[in-house]
Specification:
- It is a single chain.
- The chain has 99 residues and is of the alpha+beta class.
- It has three helices and four strands.
- The chain has a four-stranded antiparallel β-sheet with strand order 2-3-1-4.
- The longest helix is centred in the last third of the chain and has 14 residues, at 67-80.
- The radius of gyration is 15 Å and the shape is globular.
Length: 99
């Protein structure tokens, strides 16, 4: 099995760009988006309100597909959006099914 899962966490301002990028990947099996709250210790990147509440609003995208396609997406991110405070996690899929 050469499939994987790519989790991308971005600022809400990048959501449309990221959705368009993923929709352009014709070999991608699919993806989901959701609004999440990010928490962490890097408070220098947070607004005063975010520092007080201890959370920062983000968009999380989860894509599933061939590792080669997901690696291509990571390369596009690194080439086009470096220094954009994007977090990604790419991992192989151990099992997958549509039940």
């Amino acid at each position: 099995m050469n499939e994987g899962v790519l989790i991308i966490i971005i600022a809400p301002s990048l959501e449309e760009w990221m959705v368009d990028l993923l929709l352009e990947q014709q070999d991608l099996s699919g993806f989901t988006t959701s609004y999440v709250n990010a928490h962490g210790t890097h408070t220098s990147r947070l607004s005063l309100l975010e520092q007080v509440t201890g959370r920062q609003q983000k968009v999380q995208l989860v894509a599933y597909g061939a590792l080669a396609v997901l690696n291509r997406v990571v390369t596009l991110l690194e080439n086009n959006l470096s220094h954009s405070d994007i977090r990604y996690i790419l991992m192989p899929s151990l099992a997958s099914a549509l039940i």
